[in-house]
C-alpha cells in the first residue's frame, strides 16, 4: 500500500493547489465530463473520498460495506453539493481528503480477500483496490477539470498502475499497447496476431484506457483507436 499511498498524497496536494487557484467564477465552467461543471467534478471527488473512507472503516470492522446507497442517491448528492458556494465545496473536499487519509491505514486490519460493493447488489470490488481507486479518482478527475493539469502530467508510476489495472479488467475487442516512452507493453483482452497495436506514451495509453480521447498522442496500427466498449 505504501507506494500507492505516497502517490495519493502527492496527487491530492496537486489537486488542492489547482482548486485553491480557481476563482469562484471558474467553478461553473464545463469540465470534460459530459454534463458536469468543475463544481460537479469537485463535489464528486469530495463525496468519493468520504465514501471510500467509509469503505476502509467498514472493511477494518469486518463488514462488507457499500460505497453508495444507490446510484440515484449518489447522483443527487453530487448535484446538491455542486450547487453550493465554491467555498463550501472547497472545504468539503479538503476535509474529506483528510478523512480518507486517516481511514486508509485501517485497511491493514481488513481480512485477506475482503470485498465491498459499489452499491447494494452492485459491482463487488476487492478491498485491496481502495488506494488505487482513490488515486484514479483524484488523477483522472483532476485532468477532467480542464484547468491546466492534464494526463500528461501524471507520474510514470501512476500511468503504469492505471494501464495495468485497466488491461486486466478489459473485456472488449483485443488490442495491444506499447508505451514508447517507457518500453512497456500491455495486452487488452486476448491479443492474437493481427490484433491492433497502439503506440504512444504510457500516460496517453492510460488515459485512453479510461475511455477518454488521447488525441494524436496515441496511434493505432489500424489507423483507428478502439472505442473501449469493453472497459
Distance between the termini: 25 Å
Physical arrangement of strands within the biggest beta sheet: 4-3-5-6
Mean pLDDT: 96
What helical percentage do the residues reach? 40-55%
CA radius of gyration: 18 Å
**Structure class:** alpha+beta
User: Which residues sit in consecutive blocks of at least 5 with pLDDT less than 50?
Assistant: none
Residues in β-strands, percent? 5-15%
How many extended strands?
A: 6
Largest sheet: 4 strands, mixed
What does this structure look like?
48% of the residues lie in helices and 10% in strands. It has seven helices and six strands; from the N terminus they run H-H-H-H-E-E-H-H-E-E-E-H-E. The protein is globular. It is an alpha+beta fold. It starts with a helix and ends in an 11-residue tail after the last strand.
